[in-house]
Specification:
This protein is an alpha/beta fold and about 220 residues long. It has one domain: 3-Layer(aba) Sandwich (Rossmann fold), CATH 3.40.50. The chain has 8 helices and 7 strands, in the order ααβαβαββαβαααββ. Strands 3-2-1-4-5-7-6 form a 7-stranded mixed β-sheet, with helices on both faces. The longest helix has 14 residues. The two termini are about 30 Å apart.
């Protein structure tokens, strides 16, 4: 359950713009970007995977379509986006677990998932929430599991486009710098953090990161 009174930034930035979110993201290249994220993850039969900040469910639906025998879970604090995700899963006749909750307080036991994904979500969080989220990611990943992150790139790594700055507040993007993300991944106990790719979209540049959990947790 979501804590009463706790706030969050909706996937589309504002509740009124939610119906425009999926068509806009698709038009600007977001679906192709998520497909590339999934390509990097090497999801295998029997895996359990989690998408934190799953929004309207585009990535969880893609994962399940490509990997029917994988257990797919999506988590988001926004009941409106989750309702859209559930409709999307029903239309596709896919069995996906969708839960309401926050990424810095994951409602799952330790060592639950083989892969955890985050796409276009981390920049929504403040500095403390980012650190707590990544600690939670490490906690729920199984030994040998991996975290795959996709988000907007900022000036110390790749120039940010004007449209990106227009759609997303500058203070949130500033804390999404390349060195900051890699440092947080290390600080929160994830191993071998690295940026594995980047690409340009109409809304600006994006970057892909991954980090892992050692085969034997301390």
């Amino acid at each position: 359950m979501v804590e009463p009174g706790r706030t969050y930034l909706p996937a589309a930035g504002h509740d009124w713009s939610l119906p425009l979110y999926d068509p806009l993201v698709k038009m600007l290249g977001g679906d192709a970007a998520r497909a590339m994220l999934l390509d990097q993850a090497a999801v295998r039969s029997g895996y359990r995977v989690l998408d934190i900040g799953c929004g309207t469910g585009s990535l969880v639906v893609l994962i399940k379509r490509r990997n029917p025998d994988v257990e797919v879970v999506g988590l988001d604090p926004d009941p409106r986006t989750l309702a859209r995700a559930r409709r999307k899963a029903r239309r596709a006749a896919l069995s996906i677990q969708l839960h309401q909750g926050f990424s810095d307080e994951l409602p799952y036991p330790e060592d639950t998932f083989d892969r955890v994904f985050s796409s276009f979500m981390l920049h929504h969080l403040n500095a403390a929430e980012k650190e707590s989220t990544l600690r939670e990611v490490r906690r729920v990943l199984k030994p040998g599991g991996r975290f795959h992150l996709l988000d907007f790139a900022t000036p110390d790594s790749i120039p940010v486009g004007r449209l990106t700055r227009f759609l997303h507040s500058s203070h949130r993007l500033k804390d999404n710098a390349d060195a900051r993300i890699l440092g947080l991944l290390r600080q929160t106990g994830l191993s071998d953090p690295r940026r594995v790719a980047d690409r340009a979209l109409l809304i600006g540049h994006i970057a892909y990161y991954q980090a892992s959990v050692p085969n034997s947790k301390p």
